[in-house]
Design goal:
alpha/beta; nine-stranded mixed β-sheet; 12 helices; 12% strand; binds pyridoxal-5'-phosphate
Length: 350
């Protein structure tokens, strides 16, 4: 496969197999509602054998499956090893007992306030601003995380976040995470961002999201226009694990976000059978920098129960990163890091 990054972002059009009426291109909420949650349906759409579906039904019991159509449309039918499918398809390995893999590998649950505020790092405050995602990544480190927040971003909840931000003048950056902050509708999201922007000691806001990748229709012209009016630098960190995730619609969404004046970064989880080979990583990071999205972090997998089959040994990760350094400009090589419970920052792995 060519590694020049312009290459072959293959798109598999499964639309002929979808019998539901296709929602309007910009109606991201309809797309969200029509996400595929039944493993049998996913397997039928992708022409996968029935034993794959049976296994998926069992594994989805502990953590439900959720795959939005625009993401599904980029998968190759008939290929159980497709790198996009592997990230979302429940498999038997998830339910096997996994030594050293736990429900809260980062020890976050006791740290989160009842409003979903998490301050682990100095000067930055992380808010679990939405309690859902558009896609369920099987390796999610918060897959067992019950965030006790009520209706996402209600007025009371947003006020509670602001009270926490106002209480500590050392906080100069607010990070919206989740769940996925772009699950909030425009009114909720912008209300929250505008209020944060009014706090005098806050200098930047950061949004960690996978939404522009899985439902690019979420990034409407209207949203981009509103973002460009915020009186504060906005950073987006896009969760993206494979070049095939970046089809033409996603690249357009990225351009709309960029046109809003936001700075775009990417974070990637190193995943066995998805992107743990040099060609996949080269193609991913080159595609990202060609879209002016800067690779920021390459994460060592968090050891969450159910995800052991995704783990890549650190030595192999280090070897891959060294090879990336030899072959890419420095700015296209992300920092390879691991998170440790109780750590004051992420630890570099070389
Ligand atoms: C990583 C992380 C941060 C800080 O992110 P940096 O990009 O390292 O500044 C803050 N809060 C949580 C919970 C994180 O995981």
């Amino acid at each position: 496969m060519p590694d020049d990054g312009k290459a072959s972002t293959v798109s598999y059009d499964n639309s002929s197999r979808q019998n539901s009426s296709r929602p309007g291109a910009s109606d991201w909420q309809a797309i969200l509602r029509e996400a595929v949650t039944a493993p049998e349906e996913l397997c039928r759409l992708l022409q996968l054998p029935s034993h794959v579906a049976e296994e998926a039904v069992v594994a989805a019991d502990a953590f439900p499956m959720c795959v939005p159509q625009p993401f599904l449309a980029r998968m190759k039918p008939g290929d159980p090893a497709d790198p996009l499918l592997r990230q979302v398809l429940p498999i038997r390995d998830e339910v096997a007992s996994q030594e050293g893999f736990t429900e809260d590998p980062l020890g976050e649950q006791p740290l989160a306030s009842s409003n979903g505020v998490l301050q682990k790092y100095q000067r930055r405050l992380l808010i679990l601003s939405a309690d859902a995602c558009a896609v369920h990544c099987r390796f999610c480190f918060r897959r067992h995380f019950a965030v006790p927040i009520g209706p996402a971003a209600s007025r009371e909840i947003v006020n509670a976040w602001l009270a926490e931000i106002n209480r500590d003048p050392t906080i100069n950056e607010v990070i919206l995470s989740g769940g996925d902050p772009l699950m909030l509708d425009d009114a909720q999201l912008l209300d929250c961002l505008q209020k944060i922007a009014q706090v005098s000691h806050v200098q930047r806001v950061r949004v960690h999201t996978r939404m522009p990748i899985v439902i690019p229709q979420r990034v409407t012209e209207a949203l981009a226009a509103h973002l460009s009016n915020l009186a504060m630098p906005v950073y987006f960190v896009l969760h993206c694990n494979h070049a095939r995730e970046l089809d033409a619609d996603v690249r357009s969404a990225i351009r709309r976000l960029r046109a809003s004046g936001a700075t775009l970064l990417a974070q990637t989880v190193l995943l066995r059978g998805v992107n743990d080979d040099i060609q996949s990583l080269l193609e991913l990071f080159q595609t990202l920098v060609n879209e002016q999205v800067m690779p920021y972090y390459l994460h060592q997998l968090d050891r969450v129960a159910g995800a052991a089959h995704f783990e890549v040994p650190v030595e192999r990760g280090q070897m891959l990163v060294q090879e990336l350094r030899d072959r890419l400009p420095g700015y296209a090589v992300p920092k390879y890091v691991r998170e440790t419970p109780g750590g004051t920052c992420k630890s570099p792995l070389g």
